[in-house]
Design brief:
226 residues; alpha/beta; Rossmann fold; four-stranded antiparallel beta sheet; 8 helices
Length: 226
């Protein structure tokens, strides 16, 4: 489903390059549940943003379902993202001017889902995540945990083929966190590919493979197990 070859991300200042990712090769098959782990500053979120087509690599190639993402213009990348990817952001990134209901509905509008089905899908998400009573509120009226639940509902509602989650349970209590991970596990069992960034060993156990990053590089499995 995904193939990265020689991916690098760096920032230039004069003659100095500061690398965030270096020589990343990665293959992720359709239907996998992959966890990306590593210390702060290792490049985990940057890699996730590149996979989600929200950032671009400085060098290297990226294929998504056989298409070269690195060769696409911004409009085509955006369209591909909207059609196939649900993204759970660590800092929520809800739209301040929209209500909870409207935030969750947004991906369905992008996909052209008809009104009746949109209403049913949003209602199902509100019920599933226990936020029915919050549907008319705006993001600033919610706690961090509630905003996170809305962000997850928004990512899931469009039934994407790929879900990317950046510390999806970081602002949730243990019961909420377990509910979210069980939801991801169920979606994965139904065929959705999931890639999560997490510091939680418990969350990592839900996946079938863990990729370790250190200083922007993928750590070989033999070293990661030491």
């Amino acid at each position: 489903m995904l193939q990265l070859r020689g991916i690098e991300r760096y920032y230039s200042s004069g003659f100095v390059k500061t690398y965030v990712l270096r020589h990343v090769d990665l293959d992720i098959a359709e239907g996998e549940f992959v966890t990306i782990m590593g210390p702060s500053g290792s490049g985990k979120s940057t890699l996730l943003y590149i996979l989600g087509m929200l950032d671009g690599a400085t060098d290297g190639t990226y294929e998504f379902t056989g298409e070269r993402v690195d060769k696409m213009n911004e409009r085509k990348r955006t369209d591909l993202h909207k059609r196939h990817i649900g993204f759970v952001f660590q800092n929520y990134q809800l739209i301040d001017e929209l209500t909870v209901y409207e935030n969750i509905e947004t991906p369905l509008l992008y996909q052209g889902v008809k009104g009746g089905e949109r209403k049913a899908r949003v209602a199902a998400m509100l019920d599933k995540f226990g936020i029915v009573a919050k549907q008319k509120l705006f993001p600033h009226q919610l706690s961090g945990g509630q905003q996170q639940l809305v962000g997850i509902a928004r990512a899931v509602v469009a039934r994407p083929s790929l879900i990317l989650a950046d510390e999806p349970t970081g602002n949730l209590n243990s019961a909420q966190g377990e509910q979210i991970m069980e939801t991801f596990a169920q979606l994965n069992a139904e065929g959705t590919t999931i890639i999560q960034v997490t510091h939680s060993e418990r969350n990592a156990e839900y996946g079938n493979r863990t990729i370790h990053l250190l200083d922007g590089k993928v750590v070989p499995e033999t070293q990661a197990q030491l």
